[in-house]
């Protein structure tokens, strides 16, 4: 009896041990497979990330090569012409593109007045057809009182509202939606830039720039600028932050020379914030005002002030295209002759000049290069930035 009992116990123990060994073996196999699967999944993700990074690096290398190859074929006259976003002349529009090698055309109200959608598309196509390097076509489309297309003949399905109105009605989601609709309209005409968002912070409803801002503080304005730049990047429409160093509650430089006497710390802690947010979000360009900002440069309008541009490049770290405001505005035109203004703008650090007087300014710049007052090295840096922006917007094809 005792022997039988012992035999049965040993038999049961043997079966239990076998089952435990089998279960543990299966668990180990499962864990090994899971670990291997996890490693494989992580490896695949890493490979995909590496492939994406490699693809982006190749794309950037191709872009760099394309731009450098193009620049190597360009004459001095062609390079200088690329630095002009010209107001469309009343006459000889195609001839001006060819003779001055213009970088782009800026549409004003007179260029779209009475135009139908088909007319405007045909006009812009006719400009691109005669330009050896694709033109950057821009139109001021902040919305509200600043919209060229609003004045056309059915050029927009509904009027572009000011960002202040859009923001008050629907917040940042409304801003993004508005930019999506606006971008679709711009693309349909072959327009690559709307010269917005306005990054100015203005708190006085009586201030000149107030209605073109959100009318809110620097923090909320920064959120608006960031959202706008991000959405414009998705839509492949150029973003332009304006008007650096910040307009504030100052008077209108369209009609007079304006002095901004705020101290630099006030600008840094307030007005610079939306520009920093836009730069961090990847802004394509920044427009500089004609205001004389005494805490940075007591003597020169910001648009032709090297200290202002040095601050934008070195302190704020902006690497994209810096452009002037319209050179015809009294804030600059009453300060310096139009002939001299173009060269002064480039020497200060601008890459793109918004000009109606390119016929006088381009020869003066070429003369300045010949005489050594403006270097070919600086010229090439600006040409590169303009061409890179065009490439980022899909204008430069293989």
Explain how this protein is built.
The protein has 398 residues and is of the alpha/beta class. Helices cover 56% and strands 9% of the residues. It has 13 helices and eleven strands. The strands form four sheets. A four-stranded parallel β-sheet has the order 3-2-1-11. The protein has a three-stranded parallel β-sheet with strand order 6-8-10. Strand 1, helix 3 and strand 2 form a beta-alpha-beta unit. Helix 6 runs parallel beside helix 7, helix 7 runs parallel beside helix 8 and helix 11 crosses helix 12. The protein is globular, with a radius of gyration of 30 Å. The protein starts with a helix and ends in a 6-residue tail after the last helix.
What's the short story on this structure?
By secondary structure, the protein is of the alpha/beta class. The chain has helices spanning 2-73, 76-82, 93-100, 109-112, 117-129, 163-189, 218-235, 264-280, 306-315, 330-333, 338-348, 358-371, 376-392; strands at 84-87, 104-107, 136-139, 141-143, 146-147, 240-244, 259-260, 285-288, 292-293, 321-324, 353-355. The strands form 4 sheets. The protein has a 4-stranded parallel sheet with strand order 3-2-1-11.
């Amino acid at each position: 009896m005792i022997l039988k009992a012992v035999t049965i116990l040993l038999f049961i123990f043997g079966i239990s041990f076998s089952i435990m060994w089998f279960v543990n073996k299966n668990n180990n196999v499962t864990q090994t497979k899971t670990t291997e699967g996890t490693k494989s999944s992580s490896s695949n993700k890493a490979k995909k990330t590496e492939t994406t990074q490699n693809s982006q690096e190749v794309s950037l290398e191709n872009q760099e090569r394309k731009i450098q190859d193009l620049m190597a074929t360009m004459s001095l006259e062609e390079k200088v012409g690329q630095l002009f976003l010209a107001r469309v002349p009343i006459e000889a529009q195609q001839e001006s593109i060819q003779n001055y090698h213009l970088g782009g055309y800026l549409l004003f109200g007179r260029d779209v007045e009475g135009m139908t959608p088909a007319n405007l598309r045909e006009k812009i196509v006719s400009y691109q057809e005669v330009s050896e390097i694709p033109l950057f076509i821009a139109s001021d489309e902040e919305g509200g009182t600043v919209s060229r297309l609003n004045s056309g003949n059915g050029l927009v399905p509904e009027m572009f509202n000011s960002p202040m109105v859009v923001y008050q009605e629907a917040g940042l989601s409304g801003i993004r939606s508005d930019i999506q609709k606006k971008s679709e309209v711009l693309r349909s005409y072959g327009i690559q830039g709307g010269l917005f968002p306005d990054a100015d912070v203005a708190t006085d409803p009586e201030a000149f720039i107030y209605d073109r801002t959100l009318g809110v503080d620097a923090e909320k304005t920064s959120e608006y600028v960031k959202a706008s730049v991000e959405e414009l990047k998705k839509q492949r429409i150029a973003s332009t932050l304006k008007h650096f160093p910040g307009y504030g509650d100052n008077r209108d430089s369209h009609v007079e020379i304006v002095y901004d006497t705020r101290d630099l710390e006030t600008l840094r802690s307030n007005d610079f914030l939306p520009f920093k947010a836009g730069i961090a979000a990847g802004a394509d360009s920044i427009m500089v005002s004609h205001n004389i900002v005494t805490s940075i440069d007591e003597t020169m309008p910001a648009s032709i002030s090297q200290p202002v541009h040095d601050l934008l490049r070195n302190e704020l770290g902006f690497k994209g295209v810096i452009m002037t405001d319209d050179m015809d505005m009294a804030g600059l035109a009453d300060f310096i002759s139009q002939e001299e203004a173009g060269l002064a703008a480039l020497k200060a650090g601008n890459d793109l000049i918004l000009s109606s007087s390119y016929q006088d300014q381009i020869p003066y710049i070429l003369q300045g290069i010949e005489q050594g007052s403006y270097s070919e090295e600086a010229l090439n840096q600006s040409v590169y930035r303009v061409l890179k922006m065009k490439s980022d917007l899909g204008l430069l094809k293989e």
